[in-house]
């Protein structure tokens, strides 16, 4: 339980609340914009490079 409590405290310090953390799917990943375009956001702390490939 100690590890869980420590991790939860870290998460709440970074995100505000656990509920805010659970709603991150609304910001990350592929999201459609109001104008019909798409936005991709990825959380990658410490990443030196990120690549997006595919047929678009």
From TrEMBL:
Gene3D superfamilies: Glycosidases, Immunoglobulins
Example GO BP: nervous system development
Coiled coil: none
Domain of life: Eukaryota
Name by which UniProt lists this protein: MHC class I antigen
Organism: Cirrhinus mrigala
